[in-house]
Amino acid sequence: MPRDDTYPIPARSDNATSFDALVIGAGFSGLYQLLCLRDRLGLSVRLLEAGDGVGGTWYWNRYPGARCDSESHSYAYYFSDELLQEWTWSERYPEQPEILRYLNYVTDRFDLRRDIGFGARVSEARYDEAANRWHVTTESGERYDAKFLITAVGCLSSANIPNIPGLDGFRGAWYHTGQWPHDGVDFTGTRVGMIGTGSTGIQAAPVIAETAAHLTVFQRTANYSIPARNAPLSDEFKRWMKENAAELRGIMQSTPNGHPFRIEDRSAHEVTQEERQAIYEAAWEKGGLQFRAAFRDLLVDKEANDTAAEFIKEKIREVEGQGHRRETGRYRPSVRHQAAADRHLVFRDVQPRQRHLGRCARDADRMHHPGRNPDARRRRAQARHHRFCDRLRRDDRAAAADEHPRKGRAALA
Length: 413
Prior knowledge:
Helix content: 25-40%
CATH class of the largest domain: Alpha Beta
Structural class: alpha/beta
Number of domains: 3
C-alpha cells in the first residue's frame, strides 16, 4: 500500500530526527503498529530493528526444528481480508522459514520496509516530561525523538545464557537457540549436549539426533508434551480457512488465549471416568494445544488438572514400553530403554545429582555449626553419599546393558 505524499515529513531538532512515533522491534506486533500508526492515523513513524531483517523472534530463532505451536490459520494477521485470501499456509504448524516468508510478504505487501531502520539496536530511551518527548539513542549513535514510543520487543528478545562455570573456557562450539547462526550448524558425527527441555528443547532434540553421533539432553524437570499431529494442509481445509475467516476471527477475539477454538463449558468432575477418558483420547488423537480446552477447569482446579496429568503419564508409559518392546521383545517401562532404542541417550534428568551435590555442601556447613554434633552429622552425610553412589553404579550397569554406558560423571565430594 503506497504511502500518501501528504504524510508528515520527519523534522530534525538538536541533531536528533523527530517523529510522531517510534516503534522498537519488527516482529508481528511491531510491524502492525507501524502500519496502524502510519496508514490509519497518518503519523510520521520510524521502526527501529536490531536485526538485518523483519521477523522478530522468527528472525533470531532458527534452531533445528523451530516451528510454531499455534495452528497456522490462527497465527496470522486478520486485519486485512485481502491478505487472508492471498496467503496460503502449507502445514498445520508452520516452520520458522515459512513464518519468516510470511512476515516479509506482509512487509512488502504494505510497503512497510521504507520506514524501518535495520541494524538499529536501541541503547537508551529517556523521557523528557517537560517537553512530553521521548529521546532514543541507538548503539551506533543515531538519535531520535518522538511523542510516542512503542516497545514491541515481546518476551523472547533477550537470550537467557546460563552462568555455567567453565563456559568461557569450553573448547568446543556452543550455541544458544535464540541466537542461532543463520547459515545453520552441521552436527554430523559430533557429540552434542543440550541443556533444557522446554518447547524449544522438545522441538530441537529429535532433529539434532538425526545427524549427531550422540545426543545427551540435560534437564532439571521433565515437561509434558502433547503430540502435534502436524501434517500438510489439504486443499479442502485451505478453502475452509478462507471461507470462514470471519468466524475464525470472532472465535480468536473472544477466547482467553486467542486460539481458533473455544474452551469446552464442562468440568472434569461432571463426567464419568469412562467419559473423561474418551474425551482425553479424542483430544490426544487430534493433537495440539486444544487438549487443554477439553474441560474448563483444567487450569484452575488442581484435582481436575490431576486427571489430565495422569492421562498423559499413562501415555508416556505406553511409549516407553513400546520402545523397549521394539528393542528386546519384552516389556519394561523405562525412559532409558526408549532412548536406547532410538540410539540416543535423550532426556536424562540430572536433578538428583544436583540435589546431592547441593546437600553435600550444606552438610559441610552444618558440621561446623555451634551446638551441632559433627560426628553424627558426618555419619549421616556419608551414608547419603554412599547410597547415592550405589544408585549411580546401578544406573551405569543398566545403561551398559543397553550398550550406552555413561561417558562422564558429576564430580562427587
